[in-house]
Amino acid sequence: MSTLDLKPSISCRYDILSLGEVMIRLDPGDNRIHTTREFKVWEGGGEYNVARGLRRCFNKRAAVVTAIPDNAIGRLLEDLMLQGGVHLEHIKWVPFDGVGREVRVGLNFTERGFGIRAAKGCSDRGLSAASQLKKGDIDWEDIFGRAGVQWFHTGGIFAALSETTADVIIEAVTTAKKYGTIVSYDLNYRPSLWKSIGGQKKAQEVNRKLAPYVDVMMGNEEDFTACLGLEVPGMDKHLSKLDPSNFKKMILEAVKQFPNFKAVATTLRNAKTASINDWGAILYMDGNFYEATLRENLEIYDRIGGGDSFASGLIYGLMEGKTPQQAVEYGSSHGALAMTTPGDTTTVSLADVEKAMAGGTARVDR
């Protein structure tokens, strides 16, 4: 049985609530960012993607807390998010100054990569409305106390946006814990975000301050080292990225330092090329390790959002009281499927995920 004690769904307005920045993604398709003459537009953000996946694929009641400037670009972002089905009542709409000197929508330019050319992202998110959120801006007592939330998710991307966003997370998680809401956190280390505000040292300071409030911690090996400063004596740095022993040592050290972690999960990815990856996952829970079925030579169409879709599948399994093995399989299968379609967010169904879990083939469905 799971060690996660979820509040009854009937007593909560939301099954899942995410806190984070939602950006507009400008996708050049098969072209490069610096040579294209057109972009497709999507919405996306590490924390938001998890809530959206739980709504669109797993039919959970989902909401997002973020901030958006009240202008035409902000309303475009709203329109994209409405398609995602996530409740938007807790968006903080910020007056626009006319030219973006004070506030704007964050933009994320990402090209997919192919073969030996890796995927590449270029963010343009300075002065974004979400990065300027500060303590006191959100009525967390109303959200967690009056409305009620089963599961709250946030992560290291939002924590890195400014000097104030980590304070917002602290305010949120302390209130969530007060009302018995499960808290998950994806470390999601991004060197570019921490570079100008203290680098890896600052990342560790912030994330170690947040970690004691987390029930379910997620991240890859680099995340745990960069964000939590975990160093495991004797761990062979030259092992294959998909050798689970590396990750198991790191996870055990994480649980030792933060005994509040009820579950720790990580994806396993070996990028042979931008288009071909080996893909797996590990979950540590109730004192045991559970490994998802390894997918070798998985064909990748758009890798952005694969980890977020893993998180939403894993959370679905845990929320539904599935076994830990089933939960990690839901996560791994959903992440694998999400990388077969364009955009940051999922376009697959629960039936698609369960077919993949059962070893279904790619033969046409008629």
How does this structure look, described?
With 366 residues, the protein is an alpha/beta fold. The chain has a single domain (9-354), classed as UDP-N-acetylmuramoyl-L-alanine:D-glutamate ligase (3-Layer(aba) Sandwich). Helix content is 34%, strand content 22%. The chain contains 12 helices and 14 strands. Strands 1, 4, 5, 8, 9, 10, 11, 12, 13 and 14 form a 10-stranded mixed sheet that branches. A 4-stranded mixed sheet has the order 3-2-6-7. α3 packs parallel to α5 (165-178), α8 packs parallel to α9 (244-257) and α10 (306-319) packs antiparallel against α11.
How would the blueprint of this fold be written?
Layout: E1 14-19, E2 23-27, E3 40-44, H1 46-56, E4 62-69, H2 72-84, E5 91-94, E6 107-111, E7 120-124, H3 140-147, E8 149-155, H4 156-159, H5 165-178, E9 182-186, H6 191-194, H7 199-210, E10 216-218, H8 221-228, H9 244-257, E11 263-271, E12 276-285, E13 288-291, E14 295-299, H10 306-319, H11 324-338, H12 350-357
Parallel strand pairs: 1-4, 1-8, 2-6, 4-5, 8-9, 9-10, 10-11
Antiparallel strand pairs: 2-3, 6-7, 11-12, 12-13, 12-14
Helix pairs in contact: 1-10, 3-5, 8-9, 10-11, 11-12
